[in-house]
User: What shape does this take?
Amino acid sequence: MFRYLNSTNFKAIMLFLGRTLLYTGILFILIYLYHFKQIGSDDFVYNEF
Assistant: This one.
């Protein structure tokens, strides 16, 4: 088992999963913060359309 944990494939898979989770978390945080933006404010781009 320890040979598998030290293998290159395992490290590459864990790096891919770690980055995927990180970027997914950042995406969800940005969507969460965008939810609090007031669409009715004056600086909303599509207000006049």
About this structure: The CA atoms of residues 12 and 18 lie 10 Å apart. Residues 8-35 form the longest helix (28 residues). The chain has a mean pLDDT of 79. The chain has two helices and no strands.
